[in-house]
Amino acid sequence: MKKALSILLATIMMLTMASAMTLSVSAEEKKSVGFVTFGLGGDFFQQLADRYVEVMTEAGWDATYEDGQFDPNVQMEKCENYIAMGVDVLVIWSVAPEAMDGVIQQAMDAGIKVIAFVAETSQYDVLMVSDDADLADNLCKMAAKWIDETFADAEDHSVPVAVLSCRTAETGVVQADELIKIEEFSQKAKFQQEIECEDENMDTGLAAVENFFPANPDTQVFLTAHSGLGLGINNYFTAMSSPVTDYSNMGVFAINGDSTMADLIKSSVDGASPLRGMVLTGSVDDTANELRQMCEGIMDGSVEEGHVQKAGTMFVNADTVDEYLETGTVTSVTAEDFE
Amino acid sequence: MEKANKKSFGEIFADLSLPILLIAMVIFFSFMSKSFLTSINITNILVQNVHVAVCSAAVMIIMISGGCDLSIGYQMSVAAVLVTKMMSVYNVPVVIAVICGIALCSLLGTFNGYMALKLKSNTMIVTLGTMAIFQGISYLISESKTYHNLPRAFMYIGQWRMFGWLPLNVIIMIVLLVIVGFVMGKTSAGRKVYAAGDNPEAARLAGLNVGKIKVLSFTVAGVLVGISAILLASRAGSADSGTGVGIEFTGITACVLSGVALKGGEGTLWKVIVAVFVLGVLANGMQLINLGTYPQYIAKGVIMLVSLYLTNRNAQGI
Amino acid sequence: MGGVLTEILSLKNISKEYPGVKALDNVSISFEKGEVHALVGENGAGKSTFIKTISGAIRPTSGTIEYEGKTYSYLQPAQAIDMGIAVVYQELIQFEAMSVADNIYMGVKEESGLVLNDKERQRKAAGVLAEFDCHISPADLIRNLSIANRQIVELAKAMVKKAKVIIMDEPTAAITVSEQEKLFEVVHKLKASGVTVIYISHRLDELFRICDRVSILRDGQYVTTKDIQDTSKQELINFMVGRELSSTYPDKKPAAAEVVLSVKNLTGNGVRDINFELHKGEILGFAGLVGAGRTELMHLIFGAAPRESGQILFKGQEKKLSSPKDGMAAGVALIPEDRKFQGCFIDKPIYWNISISTIDHLTKNGMVDRKAEMELAEDYRKRLKIKTPFLTQLTSGLSGGNQQKVVISKALASLPDILIFDEPTRGIDIGARHEIYLLMNELAEQGKSILMVSSDMEELLGMSERIIVLHEGAQAGELSKDEFTQEKVLALASGL
């Protein structure tokens, strides 16, 4: 048993070393880039990482990604590994930007170009952001439009809106702070209560609404910055024992959902679910291509150091969900349509 | 469970301390929130803890046998994504998918126990390793997707209510717990699990096959974990690779709070279940009185320390 | 020898009582500076209690300890270490994964303050070891050293701590002859530097090579102290034994001729080439020093350890013994030497313990038949006179004798033909012992055969019909009832 195990381990090590050697040979000719992801839960994260590697490889780069596992320490280690491997560009989507100062300095000292993705680190060569607060604002606008149209006859500020938040990470805090200002965006909405959740998981969202709704059955709209919580809310209302079966006066809105969420939004058109819409930071394809432009630009000098690239917002709702499901992006509707 | 006939007041109090704590919490939250002591909310608390209770029973069996399993969360995740993917993507009949999920989990559990036996290693360390393996398997199966278009028959398991009010999954939980309680407390198989965990050497010299008992404990726990995954997925109506992750800590917490010995050989099911509901009522009640996330963490820690103090005053073998 | 000026340690009128047992009874011994003073006695004579009194591990019930002119009624462990008393235990307590130097300097204050300086430590450790003329590298890990070298490391540690009295407990029990020589040299060097060595050993030969004086304990009492050149091995044995067998051993009918167990050339688990036969209704004793392989042999017969070669025949038939379960199926039951860790489930109730090995036969429709289980336990409670108000009492709440009866009940519940009693009365008080002896005789007369391992000489001679003596894993001899003397047993056990 032990012998077999040690042989297995030895074989794996040999293979790893062999593949590492072939890699290092080819790396001499190609430019290389390493992407430390936020984490790989949910297909948005995974697809982005996969698509990005594809796009970069097509463009002749040696591209890999590492799972950041939602953990700043893990991210730091992965960065250090990339620095040790001597990549040309390091892309980092940081969980805790302030924790990355040291390792980013280290990368820069080693002559590596650093692209901070989504989260703003204290130093960077390029910053690609979708402003967290902007995104939440856009969700509010989308929700406000639906509320004001659906409840056009209601009195001002009479439609109760609840917010499910998760304030364990900075993004969650910033976005929750925007979402609770829904009354500023909608004439009819009345902010009712914020429900704080311990994590962003679907079953946490489900339990939270289960606990909340029986005591507040008049609530008609739920906003959340987290797709997991959004899915949980939707699952509560579509379950067999749901107290609500007619969703025409019910709306759920979330940020950064995946294709499953899009399917549900589509089904809301037929009254099969209350999930009305979500906003996303650009499509997977758009984002991957944008990343490629930045990587190439920073290497050939067409992008200045210190450049800030702002990502657009995609609006997925009843009108645009078909477009999104077919093309993976939404261009027909932009932020201006909701002003 | 089986102590001397004459119990001192202190011992009785230690036995009943968790139920007393639970009642005290119920009274507290009833005063703090009108909506706490309503039939809907009580049902909510039950329904939300069905999968936790079943998982905790699995954790208890493993801990009594002298082991510890950190991979339970990912076992659940593997089973949940397998079952939901089979049904929503490949249109496999519900019964077959459910059986596959449970069978797979029992295999994963057996694998844990067998590896610990063959590597002659601590189960906590072995399952730390297998946890990573199961995590990988789960993501491979799920392709990082969420599966939600589940057949109605499957949803019945987690959402149907008998007479319009009695949730089916609560009934399933009660049946499972009665079976586990019966097996552990009343059968020779259960007796052997206690013996193997309490004193492996004495058990070996008493003619018991300690290795086999420990591996089978993991197998049985795997079956429970598989069922638990199905209960959770059917209640939620969707599953992804995050389903169930982290539940092992809730389970271990409930076990330790109720006095299940870390060294093995001791533990009582009803106390574990009461501990599960202490944690469940706490989470529910804190939300109803709208306590913020951070105070919730603190309150949770305090309640855990209090219940540890209450149950373990009469010493626990750690 | 012996003047007020050179006396370093003196124990006066020390008694230590445990419930039902007097471990030490009014013992007075004094030790001179720079002598090697042996302490001998049979197992259970009170040697370890005596050492523990000096090292501060226990408090004596009465008596005083005089050390360097000061009088104490007891010592604390830390105090004993500070005063310069060091103990090298038989079971070495060391940091296995640390280096020799780290072990020697563990707990010693560094000159450089809080920072550990590995090189400096190793250099100093090398200096200490060089004084002993030993070739041990200070950087070696303890777990890579031989037992003898580990002991030398302990002695070096004692030197670094400026020990004035070093107690060595059975240092040669587990080491080879050539290693012994090395160890003796170190002891001589310690002695030359003025350290007092209290030397405990079962091997009487070696005392004549390294000791100055020898004190004898017997049954917790002090017998005498002799200069080594004024005594002989035979005299020491007489002093150690020195008493008539008391009549606490009940008479028993002689065994039948039928052979129930025969062991042929049995090798494995640390014993080799064992041959004997056990007759129906016989009590066969096994003698030997600690580590002679008696328990190991019993585990082979019970199936708790794998054999390498040889045969074990039950009523003429060879049985496969790969686990205790097989042993039990062959009709063997074991009452292990360590009650707490092998014999019973101490924090479980009495009935639970009695039924556990036969729990599969106590089920009805898959359930444990609680009624049958309690009846079984009640039956044994009556037969063995277990003193308890309730069978639901936790076993830990019973006295040693009653705990042992629970363990015997558990063994008997599997209805064995052959019972192995490994140290049947260890830690049991006199009154309860007698009951166990009566029970053993009764079982033998009912046709059960008994293998009894005991380190209690009196018990061995009193209970056995024959005795097989083991020495370092091999069969040193067999004695029949008319040949029984303690001297003969002790001589065989010591390999003479």
Short summary:
The complex is a heterotrimer of chains A (339), B (318) and C (496). Chain A is α/β, with parallel strands linked by helices and 339 residues long. Chain A is built from twelve helices and twelve strands.
What does this structure look like?
The complex is a heterotrimer of chains A (339), B (318) and C (496). With 339 residues, chain A is an alpha/beta fold. Chain A folds into two domains: 30-130 and 284-305, Rossmann fold (3-Layer(aba) Sandwich), CATH 3.40.50; 132-280 and 315-338, Response regulator (Rossmann fold, 3-Layer(aba) Sandwich), CATH 3.40.50. Chain A has twelve helices and twelve strands. Chain A has helices at residues 2-27, 43-58, 72-85, 101-109, 132-150, 170-179, 182-185, 202-212, 227-238, 259-269, 284-300, 321-327, and strands spanning 31-36, 61-66, 89-92, 113-117, 126-129, 159-165, 189-196, 221-224, 251-255, 275-280, 307-310, 314-316. Chain A has a six-stranded parallel beta sheet, with helices on both faces. Chain A has a six-stranded mixed beta sheet with strand order 7-6-8-9-10-12, with helices on both faces. In chain A, 49% of the residues are buried. Helices cover 74% and strands 1% of the residues of chain B. Chain B has helices at 9-32, 39-64, 72-88, 94-118, 123-142, 152-159, 168-186, 188-198, 200-205, 210-236, 247-257, 269-288, 293-312, and strands at residues 161-162, 166-167. The two termini of chain B are 19 Å apart. Chain C has two domains: 7-241, P-loop containing nucleotide triphosphate hydrolases (Rossmann fold, 3-Layer(aba) Sandwich); 259-493, Rossmann fold. Helices cover 34% and strands 26% of the residues of chain C. Chain C has a six-stranded mixed beta sheet, sandwiched between helices. Chain C has a six-stranded mixed beta sheet with strand order 16-19-20-13-21-22, with helices on both faces. Chain C has a four-stranded antiparallel beta sheet with strand order 2-1-4-5, with helices on one face. In chain C, a hairpin with a 2-residue loop joins strand 11 and strand 12 (271-279). Chain C starts with 6 loop residues before the first strand and ends with a helix.
